[in-house]
Amino acid sequence: MFWNKEIECINRDELEKLQSQRLQSMVQRIYNNVPFYKKKFDELGINPKDITSVKQLSSLPFTYKSDLRDNYPFGLCAVPQQQIVRLHASSGTTGKATVVAYTQNDLDLWTEVIARSYTMAGISNSDTMQVSYGYGLFTGGLGAHYGAEKVGASVIPMSGGNTKKQLQLMEDFGSTVLACTPSYAAFLGESIVSANILDKIKLKIGVFGAEPWTEEMRQYIQNTMNIKAYNIYGLSEIIGPGVSMECECQNGSHIYEDHFIPEIINPETGEVLPEGELGELVFTAITKEALPLLRYRTRDLCTLTYEKCACGRTLARMGRIVGRSDDMLIVRGVNMFPSQVETVLLELPETTPHYAIIVDREGNLDTLEIHVEVAEQYWTDEMKQLDAIKKKITHALSNMLSLNPTVKLVEPNAMQRFEGKAQRVTDRRKL
Ligand code: ADP
Ligand code: ZN
Question: What are the tens digits of pLDDT across the range 289-343?
Fold first, then answer.
């Protein structure tokens, strides 16, 4: 129903024309309505009237998360308060929360991109969707909610937490789709298995996002719940979830380029990188009214491809987020991402996907400790056997990270579970 073929399979020259028109009007709007952008353009000697093509995008200035914070709460809004109908705030994973505003048209656009996303995953009015993202300032819950209603699904606004009730409703209402963070999905999956109710559950599709997750985590979730799990990506500054979504090919996520123009840049130099190279993802929201951000630095690291997808869509695809430029840890001079640890642990049957990374410093030397939960069927009182497991994990992690972590084994179900975004890294160094 929301398979907008005309746009999603558009000829790329046509798309460029559409983007250019929209960019042109957006640049005028922000110049005229946002003093922050007017000042920036004037300082750089850019006349907004000269911007007529998307090809000129790389000549325009970036917007940073710090710009939103410096202009807290509404300084970057391009419309008067009377037109704002909703406020959200980013979850503040890294620092103080940032506020985002929506006009009615912005909310309609958000609902549209999520409806398009759910349609991409084959979700329709025959489905019952359990929304287990938190409802509130976080964009996950309400974003999923309106998108699901738009495709006509029966929506259960369950919100996060209360796992027992989640399972109860899943069973009683016959939920066919689950929407939550991948870490909560992993936990719900385990809970379903340990309650031995898999045969009473009708789930067939999961749409998970809001935090980085690996291909191995996808396999884990798909196998535990016997579903097909899709990746949805977004960030509140751009609109919320629904900036991009995986199609049935599960080979990268299609970006709704008719609304959000992506670029991949070198985070150090700001230079735009050639197709396929790993770098920082940058978005320009060309149709948003309340908060139309120009070249917003997401700090998320991934690759982009413009190759036509096997599904027929021509919309650009982004690879998985390998991490945020600010969640990269530098330990003893070596760069590492939590996602590398997840990849290793999920390849080993002896462990669960619940882990913690603790970085500290003794004297001048960084220390790296990784707490790993042992899978139930491998847990034993035999020290020798546990030592062998520990050795195996340490070896695999050392290979992946080029570092020698201290591995601590934790007994089954002892690691913390997360109902929203997982917090797995503790950096105790005072750098
Ligand atoms: P915060 O930056 O406070 O976490 P948001 O709630 O807006 O604010 O979260 C957006 C961020 O969440 C993205 O920039 C990205 O880092 C992460 N994210 C969202 N969806 C995904 C996804 N599917 N894969 C990886 N990371 C994601
Ligand atoms: Zn596709």
Answer: 999 999 999 999 999 999 999 999 999 999 999 988 777 898 998 989 999 999 9
Q: What predicted TM-score, i.e. pTM, was given to this entire model?
A: 0.91
How far, in Å, is the centroid of ligand 1 from the Cα of 46?
A: 32
Q: Which of 322, 341, 371 is the last residue of a domain?
A: 322
The helix (run of H) or strand (run of E) holding residue 30 is helix 12-33
Concatenated DSSP letters of 61-116: PPB-HHHHHHTTTTTT-SS-GGG--EEEE---TTSS--EEEE-HHHHHHHHHHHHH
Task: Return the best residue to mutate from 283, 321, 325 for the ligand 1 pocket (most ligand atoms within 8 A of CB).
Answer: 321
- The distance in angstroms from the start CA to the end CA of the chain is 52
Question: Does 357 lie in the same domain as 273?
Answer: no
274 and 357 in a single domain? The answer is no
Per DSSP, the three-state class of 40 is helix
pLDDT at position 94 is: 59
- For 338-373, how does the pLDDT look when each residue is reduced to its tens digit (9 = 90+)? 999 999 999 999 999 999 999 999 988 899 999 999
pLDDT at residue 122 in the model = 97
Q: Which ligand is nearest to the CA of 253?
A: 2
Domain range holding 117?
1-322
* 141/210 Cα distance (integer angstroms): 11
Nearest atom in ligand 1 to the alpha carbon of residue 212 is: 25
Protein residues whose CB sits closer than 6 Å to any atom of ligand 1: 90-93, 138, 209-212, 231-236, 298, 300, 321, 324
The environment of the single-atom ion ligand 2, i.e. residues with CB closer than 5 A, is 247, 249, 309, 311, 313
CA 177 to CA 153: how far, in whole Å? 9
> Residue whose CA is closest, atom 16 of ligand 1?
300
> Does 333 lie in the same domain as 317?
no
DSSP-derived 3-state class of residue 361: strand
Helix (H) or strand (E) holding 264: strand 260-265
Angle at 132 between CA 105 and CA 111, to 5 degrees: 15
Domain check: are 313 and 349 in the same one? Answer: no
Residues 205 and 350 both lie in one domain: no
SS3 at position 54: helix
Mark 164-194 as b/e (b = at least 16 C-beta within 10 Å).
Answer: eebbebbeeeebbbbbbbbbbbbbbbbbbee
Which atom belonging to ligand 1 lies closest to the Cα atom of 138? Answer: 6
